[in-house]
Amino acid sequence: MPAVNDALARLAAAADDPGAAPDAADLEAVLASADAELMDVVAAAARLRFRHFGNTVKLNYLVNLKSGLCPEDCGYCSQRLGSKADVLKYTWLSPEQAAEQAAAGVAGGASRVCLVASGRGPTDMDVERVGKTIAAVKDAAPGVEVCACLGLLKGGQAERLAELGADAYNHNLNTAEEAYAEICSTHTFADRVDTVDAAHGAGLSPCSGLIAGMGESDADLVSVALGLRELHVDSIPVNFLLPFDGTPLEGTWELDPRRCLRILAMVRLANPAAEVRLAAGREVHLRQMQSLALQIVNSIFLGDYLTSEGQAAKDDLALIADAGLVPLGLESAPEAVRTAVRPRRRGAGTEVAPNA
Ligand code: SF4
């Protein structure tokens, strides 16, 4: 395993050279780095983040058009076949209902709305329905980008979504090709790659990411990060497993905040100019270290996730303001939060129990 500072120097040089590619062993060294080296790792990734995206943060807003009851068996997913997870289950929102949900996110500063539906993939009728939803979202919020995430696409569906106004298509690779069969038996890694390629070929901006914390190795994480690079995806959501009770990965708690930072940095170093998006699980796994993660990523989801709640949007905006960052599309940072000074009225000199 190379020393991490040597690896970071080579990765920085590779990022500067359009003809070079990051080395897998160097990326693995980033994941294996010691806590005392963590700031070196974050700094190397931050240099690329600021070089390509300045002080902007893209805010994305999820609308779950259809929740639960999926026939696929992805082990990490609370909506999977046989899931006992206590999540909302409903069929398609109407275009008006979806547009109303999306408007809340846009009002909060989101510049992209992600329309997601559970299931293996859409029927042609589903695609037309989503087209009406895209129109309703764009009517209500002109200028907003819409990304569709509807599962595996069949021939012609990506082109039709582009005609109907979709700007982007999300389909995550989730994990390495070598590990894919361990997380899903009802479709393959190659199926997912085909859909990302189809979206790209139809002119949709390809969005594809990963989930960390599912029992994968460091080599698996590097493999999926480099796989996303090979697919030339524009945006990479990095999810940290939320091990819902009632799913096969219930009780799988492998991550800590420093590990999450290393994973984000590795993805950034592997894909210097891609939008790296902090996605589900950030509040649970990064906790107080979310502010450091913003030095690496240039994009986050605002609000709630598909089946779990995120932290309050106002807390996200405060996090962004405190980091001196500006939501993409806004001219200035959200107003800084000022907390009033509270004189002590407990502990020594009082009859009230101390704060300990
Ligand atoms: S296809 Fe999508 S909704 Fe269905 S189980 Fe897999 S991840 Fe969940």
Walk me through this protein's architecture:
It is built from 13 helices and ten strands. The chain is α/β, with parallel strands linked by helices and 356 residues long. It has a single domain (24-327), classed as TIM Barrel. Strands 1, 2, 3, 4, 5, 6, 7, 8, 9 and 10 form a ten-stranded parallel sheet that branches. Helix 2 packs across helix 9, helix 2 runs antiparallel to helix 10 (257-270) and helix 3 (38-53) crosses helix 10. The longest helix has 17 residues, at 124-140. The chain is globular. The chain starts with a helix and ends in a 29-residue tail after the last strand. The site of iron/sulfur cluster has 9 residues, from loops.
Write the layout of secondary structure elements.
Layout: H1 4-16, H2 24-31, H3 38-53, E1 56-66, H4 95-107, E2 112-117, H5 124-140, E3 145-149, H6 157-163, E4 168-170, H7 180-183, H8 189-201, E5 205-207, E6 210-212, H9 218-230, E7 235-240, H10 257-270, E8 275-278, H11 282-285, H12 290-293, E9 299-302, H13 313-322, E10 326-327
Parallel strand pairs: 1-2, 1-9, 1-10, 2-3, 3-4, 4-5, 6-7, 7-8, 8-9
Helix pairs in contact: 1-2, 1-3, 2-9, 2-10, 3-10, 4-5, 9-10
Bound molecules: iron/sulfur cluster.
Iron/sulfur cluster (SF4) binds next to loops.
What do the pLDDT scores average to? 95
Q: What is the helix content?
A: 25-40%
Query: What name is given to the CATH topology?
Result: TIM Barrel
Indicate the low-confidence ranges by residue numbers: none
- How large is the count of helical segments? 13
Q: Which molecules are bound in this entry?
A: iron/sulfur cluster
Instruction: Determine the CATH superfamily.
Output: Aldolase class I
Task: Give the N-to-C terminal Cα separation.
Answer: 43 Å
Largest sheet features: 10 strands, parallel
Task: Report the principal-axis shape.
Answer: globular
Number of distinct beta strands: 10
The arrangement of helices and strands along the chain is HHHEHEHEHEHHEEHEHEHHEHE
What is the structural class?
Answer: alpha/beta
User: What's the CATH class label?
Assistant: Alpha Beta
Question: What assembly state would you assign to the polypeptide chains in this entry?
Answer: single chain
- Overall number of structural domains: 1
Strand proportion, as a percent range, falls in 5-15%
Q: Which radius of gyration do the C-alpha atoms yield?
A: 21 Å
Task: Assign the CATH architecture.
Answer: Alpha-Beta Barrel
